[in-house]
TrEMBL record:
InterPro entries in the record: MethylDNA_cys_MeTrfase_DNA-bd, MethylDNA_cys_MeTrfase_DNAb, MGMT_N_sf, WH-like_DNA-bd_sf
Entry keywords, A to Z: DNA damage, Methyltransferase, Transferase
GO terms, biological process: methylation
Protein name listed in UniProt: Methylated-DNA-[protein]-cysteine S-methyltransferase
EC code(s) of this entry: 2.1.1.63
GO molecular function terms noted in the UniProt entry: methylated-DNA-[protein]-cysteine S-methyltransferase activity
Length: 169
């Protein structure tokens, strides 16, 4: 986007929007840190980065799309409760191409599966903290506080898992 173009009301909230095979990813930055990443439907227009952190996030998202084993290194603004941060650390340790159930993550951090699911849904940094690698014991589970089997968010989760070589969902 050039400086002369008028910004879309749909993208005004974001420091950048990058197109992906599953739709888009909205990136919000503030004070030199990433503050949020949001899965977006494809109708959101791509938006050039407005600052260096957003540009770095766009570059790293594209690297992940080219290589699912790519590991993100972005300055993240501190968010979430101490419990959510414990869950997110456990999820960040799940290797690419593998999944764990909400129950397995809960057992690892000595918590309950439902609480792990709630923390997954509250993830401010999807892809960086790969909550898509957490599934239900009997299937796909929810994603980003959505559980509509044919909905946008679960299609994103399916795409991400296939991209990383995980099949059967």
């Amino acid at each position: 986007m050039t400086q002369l173009q008028t910004e879309s009301p749909l993208t005004a909230l974001f420091s950048a929007v990058v197109h992906t095979p599953f739709g888009g990813m909205g990136i919000r930055t503030q004070a030199g840190a990433l503050v949020e990443m949001v899965y977006l439907p494809a109708h959101y227009a791509e938006k050039d980065a407005t600052d260096p952190v957003a540009a770095k996030a766009v570059q790293q998202i594209r690297r992940y799309l080219a290589d699912p084993g790519f590991r993100f290194k972005l300055p993240l603004a501190p968010v979430g409760s101490a419990f959510q941060q414990r869950v997110w650390q456990a999820i960040a340790a799940i290797p690419c191409g593998q999944v764990q159930t909400y129950g397995q993550v809960a057992k690892h951090i000595q918590s309950a599966p439902r609480a792990v699911g709630q923390a997954c849904g509250a993830n401010w940094y999807p892809l960086v903290i790969p909550c898509h690698r957490v599934t239900a014991a009997g299937g796909l589970g929810g994603f980003s506080h959505h559980d509509d089997v044919d909905g946008f968010h679960l299609e994103v989760k399916r795409w991400l898992l296939r991209h990383e070589g995980v099949h059967g969902y």
